[in-house]
Amino acid sequence: MFNSTHTLVGFAIARTGLDKWVPYATATAVIASNLPDIDIVVAPGGTAAYIDLHRGITHALIGIPILALLLAASMYPFSGKFWKTFSVAILAMATHPLLDYANSYGLRPLTPFNGTWYYGDILFIFDPWIDATLLIGILAGRLTPKIRRLAACASLGFVLVYIGARMELHHLAASKFENIIKSTSGIEKWAVLPTPVNPLAWQGMFETPTEAVSITVDALRGVVADEDRYTHLERSSSSEIVTRAAETRGATSLLRFARFPVTRVERLRSGYRVTFLDFRFYTDWTRRSLACEVILDESLHVVKESLSFAQYIN
To answer: Which residue ranges make up each domain of the chain?
Structure first.
């Protein structure tokens, strides 16, 4: 989730009464709710380093308690109450991986013992309804201190109900999308992913050996577009060219991360262009995606490679 959501969750949790229970609870909760994203420090190392390490150990079952202990130790000189501060930190910090798990980017909770990605597919990475609800609750408590605790509890309660409703809507959308899946042969994997703003609109996605397809699905009405308006990307088959390109640093990182990997090979005058992309991040109208582009010469030596979240797809 966006850090705005994590920050507002931290504020709301502190306002439920924890700020009266231990000094500096608000600061502790806000820092704790964002601290797992400290792995952003690897970003200057490039996109490959970022996708290799983001949402790993600092978001894992083993990492969260360690970070909470470190934060409690850092806040202890101000609060004077280590274990109470730790309790606030672990409570607020635990919401971070839970919210991150809820979207389609995914989470690796068993790092470093197991690098498997898990996906909740319930919330888009930024949900304006959650942010607006939490912000209203915080502002209401600010303007009317007498209801501060009630407003915080009510906003958090609404968010939980909203997430529960989205879980049911996801189930409905998946059921409708499955009807298409049953009539399509050769499907290797499929999923129904959240979209921004509209809780009824979902993105049905599947892969066959030859193509990746994305379809807009309404949780109540089913598929809302004709087949000629589906988003399609052809997938190139395996070859020596693809194998050589896949050995590069960027391609290796992307293929470990990609949930719906698509490979495309283009013949150039003096070699080949191989593009590896994750179809989750592909936007048809911009033709951009998280992708790695590898240029090979006629002898299949790597001439150039680039990995970006906004790579243009030919």
So the answer is: 3-103+119-166, 235-312
